[in-house]
Amino acid sequence: MRLRSTALKATGPALVRRNAARFRLAIIRGEYNREITLSLEKKCLETLIAAGVAKKNIEVFAVPGCFEIPILAQRLALKRRYDALIALGAVIRGDTYHFELVVNECARGVMDVALRHNVPIIFEVLATYNKRDALRRAGNDKFNKGIEAAQTALSLLATLSSVTG
Question: Which residues are catalytic?
Answer without folding.
Answer: 98
